[in-house]
Amino acid sequence: MKISFVLNDRPTTVEVEPSMLLSEVIRETLSMTGTHVGCDTSQCGACVVHVNGKSVKSCTLLAPAVEGADIRTVEGLSGDTGPLHPMQQAFRDNHGLQCGFCTPGMLMAALDLVSHNPDPAESDIREWLEGNICRCTGYQNIVKSVIAGAAAMRQAS
Amino acid sequence: MKPFAYHKPDSVSAAVALLAAHANAVPLAGGMTLVPTMKQRLAGPDHIVDLSGIAGLSGVSMDGGTLVIGASTRHADVASSELVLAKLPALARLAGRIGDQQVRHRGTIGGSIANNDPAADYPAAVLALGADIVTDRRSIRADDFFIDMFETALEPGEIVTSVRFPLPDAAAYCKFANPASRYALAGVFVAKTGDAVRVAVTGAASAVFRAGDIETALSESFEPSALERISIDASGLMADIHADSEYRAQLVMVMARRAVAMALSPG
Ligand SMILES: Cc1cc2nc3c(=O)[nH]c(=O)nc-3n(C[C@H](O)[C@H](O)[C@H](O)COP(=O)(O)OP(=O)(O)OC[C@H]3O[C@@H](n4cnc5c(N)ncnc54)[C@H](O)[C@@H]3O)c2cc1C
Ligand code: FES
Ligand code: FES
Predict the structure, then answer these.
(1) Distant-in-sequence contacts of B66-70, Cβ < 8 A, 24+ apart
(2) Does A72 sit in the ligand 2 pocket, CB within 6 Å?
(3) Are B31 and A131 an interchain contact pair (Cβ–Cβ within 8 Å)?
(4) Residue B180's pLDDT is what?
(5) What integer pLDDT is reported at residue A157 of this predicted model?
């Protein structure tokens, strides 16, 4: 079947099997590998993308369910050549990643939080990132990065 | 995942017709349980009937003194609903602690109760509050709905359309969450309406159940101290790598006392 959606501001139409996952459509059909698949069992959050502005696990969404949706992946944050998004820059500045495997999901989940809570407390961040697992950092610097990224975004707006 | 045909009807009657017309057809709500079980091949439907295109199946409203929640209403939307926060804050709090935020953005109340996972949160609220489960063909009392692990009174092809919650005088839900999944190792919902107290326990046994001894003690005195000399029998409870049945029995009493304290001083 054919499905159409907007991906990082670009209208996109692809031919899919109904049993394909959104994560497969993004990574395999469209060759955009910024979105990671860690567990494939809905637990780790590496695959988080925005669908209609809300963070969701793309490994647990059937492709037909995103017909007509507005989708944003980590590639949509700063474009191919533009400067990093303030949240990406904050992760870089604050050592918010080591191997980087969890980072796309962390960024997309954090940006969803900041979109309606521009100045989140540490407890808000920890609660919101409950579904994002990082095996490297111990989370301290991820929380620090989100606080810094949110502050940079407030300043920019 | 096994291939299947995908249908997205725009009315309840069309969805029911599709489910009746095809063998091995199942409804899809948020997919937060169904998709993982299909990946593991624990489920292999030939037809998926996606309920998300049906207008009117989601949303929260009051009908007289009853809070009505559409089956397709997402956990995050129940948690943040002004109406639920005002009328039944214990339910908003429960919904806001299901899984994680990304699960709450997709998962629905209808999917949760139709699935009847032994560790799911909503069944405790539905049973303790004595809610009615409305389907395409009838209304089912909570006491008759939850049968056993992953088993409900729903007939094949029957679709939950809404859940109707009578409003209690006081209510609260307290769970001891599995730190990995957030599912309940033991969760207790207490609800007091007039002199009647209903208490439902999830996570501890093969399905949600009402705890009669706790209800009796709390109907005499709705105070945490009323539960000090009560225990529940561990022999029927679940035991797994996370908790043995004695530990679960202990957790149930702790969660029950905390829930009563919370119901007495919400906030
Ligand atoms: C990582 C993770 C953590 C979780 N943690 C928790 C937790 O802490 N507590 C908790 O309670 N749950 C938890 N869940 C489960 C979550 O709440 C699910 O959303 C819910 O159990 C199923 O709802 P759904 O809308 O996603 O249904 P689906 O997965 O779409 O469907 C589930 C089942 O119900 C059937 N169904 C769906 N809608 C209807 C309907 N209207 N009428 C009849 N049948 C229907 C489907 O055919 C299927 O068999 C978790 C899930 C994940 C992935
Ligand atoms: S890959 Fe989707 S949650 Fe882990
Ligand atoms: S940086 Fe390695 S998993 Fe998070």
Answers:
(1) B66/B164, B66/B165, B66/B166, B66/B167, B67/B91, B67/B164, B67/B165, B67/B167, B68/B162, B68/B163, B68/B164, B68/B165, B69/B109, B69/B162, B69/B163, B69/B165, B70/B109, B70/B110, B70/B161, B70/B162
(2) no
(3) no
(4) 83
(5) 82
